[in-house]
Design brief:
This protein is of the alpha+beta class and 215 residues long. The chain is built from 10 helices and 7 strands. It has a single domain, classed as 3-Layer(aba) Sandwich (Glutaredoxin), CATH 3.40.30. Helix 5 packs across helix 8.
Length: 215
């Protein structure tokens, strides 16, 4: 059984408006112990998952996101700015495309871009699309027009690494389910599991500070 407690109020109205649940990370491996690829170590350190921020940071944040999730899009810029401002956060992206079939195409584009070191650029371009439930064609157009990626290479990498990308997306889904997540966005920040939208730099900053406090 997973142990859960509420995160104390952190003094920011935006954070109080989010759906926030704190969970002891020690409970996560017990939930996922039947599968080696969904234990806590793999969730935090899957070698195939895109990682940004400070790769040697003293705090790890894991973000489960969908490119057609409006709350993910609202969180994207504040999250990025908070990570840059902090300077000590290692950010692990978990593409979890569950909202529409086109979400899967978006996730595949971003993960294919990783092979030319451009995951971040594609991720940001897809999160910036304003269309609700954007179609795959619009996503491809945004990537091709705004990111400067080698799109021919991206298409080659999509084909060449199709099995690896599919396996990562499947693994991300199993990891999300092992945590009891019901949707996106959702975050692991240090010892806390936070399902729900965080919409301000201050809210992320407060959570980073809380996660660094001794148990």
């Amino acid at each position: 059984m997973r142990s859960e407690t509420a995160i104390p109020a952190l003094g920011r109205r935006a954070f109080l408006q989010a759906s926030v649940v704190a969970a002891a990370v020690a409970a996560i491996p017990a939930v996922a112990s039947a599968n080696d690829d969904v234990d806590l170590e793999m969730i935090l350190h899957d070698p195939a998952a895109p990682v940004t921020g400070n790769l040697m940071g003293n705090l790890t944040m894991v973000a489960f996101l969908d490119y057609n999730c409006p709350w993910c899009k609202k969180a994207a810029v504040p999250m990025r700015e908070a990570v840059v401002k902090d300077g000590g956060v290692r950010l692990v992206y978990k593409d979890w495309p569950i909202i529409t079939r086109d979400s899967v195409d978006g996730a595949r584009l971003a993960l294919a871009a990783k092979y030319q070191g451009r995951y971040d650029a594609v991720h940001e371009a897809l999160m910036a699309i304003k269309t609700p439930k954007a179609k795959a064609g619009e996503m491809r157009d945004a990537v091709e027009r705004t990111t400067g990626v080698d799109f021919a290479r991206l298409q080659d990498d999509l084909a060449k690494h199709e099995a690896e990308i599919a396996a990562l997306l499947e693994r991300n889904g199993r990891q999300a389910m092992s945590l009891g997540l019901n949707g996106t966005p959702a975050f692991i920040v240090g010892k806390y599991l936070v399902p729900g939208a965080i919409q301000s730099v201050d809210a992320f900053t407060d959570l980073f500070a809380k996660a660094r406090q001794p148990v």
